[in-house]
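Aim 2, interim progress: modelling of the pyrazine-2-carboxylic acid-bound target.
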Amino acid sequence: MRPQNEAILVIDVQNDFCPGGALAVAGGDDIVAPINAMTPEFAVRVFTQDWHPRDHSSFASQHDEAVPYSMIEMPYGPQVMWPDHCIIGSTGAEFHEGLDTRAADMILRKGFRREVDSYSAFFENDHATPTGLEGYLRTRGVEAVTLVGLATDYCVNYSAVDAAKLGFKVTVIESLCRAIDLEGSLDAGKDGMMSAGVRLA
Ligand code: VGL
Ligand code: ZN
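Predicted structure of the complex, ligand included:
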């Protein structure tokens, strides 16, 4: 067991981010078994789920002339246009069936507001609207977080950087993450994490 003040954040290990899913990440399912093996070492265990209404504004399908993986300007900044994914109640939004979710103390859903995307487990993409996770972790006495899951360059990256900004000691276990890697987003994400003081293990 690790110290009581350490949490694991298992980010978005859902069917749509695994091979065969709507926004499949190469090798996304390879990390399931090793995550199952590691989770019990932690005193505090949070699993996140990307959880979008079917008309979510991050979907290319909701914008005239937007093609998947292009960028548009939203009131809160640039936003990638994703294929429809992780729709509330769909099979794609369910956790990978091999993931042992019995280990989760808390399951946090994010991205449920139509107007704003939420890559980070802490703040939505406006960088202002909190998800409540900070309060959950602090009231449980957490000071250090370890992140694993999908995708390295989006939800893991944004969550890790926000955690570091909030003052948590942050480790990302790269071998237990997989990336989308859109136009250099993995290298950019790693640079951003390192500048924010995130440890890449
Ligand atoms: C994610 C793109 C869109 C992720 C979620 O979990 O990294 N990426 N929604
Ligand atoms: Zn999403």
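The pocket of zinc ion (ligand 2) is lined by residues 50, 52, 58, 82, 85-86, 111 (CB under 6 Å). The helical segments are 32-38, 133-139, 152-165, 185-195.
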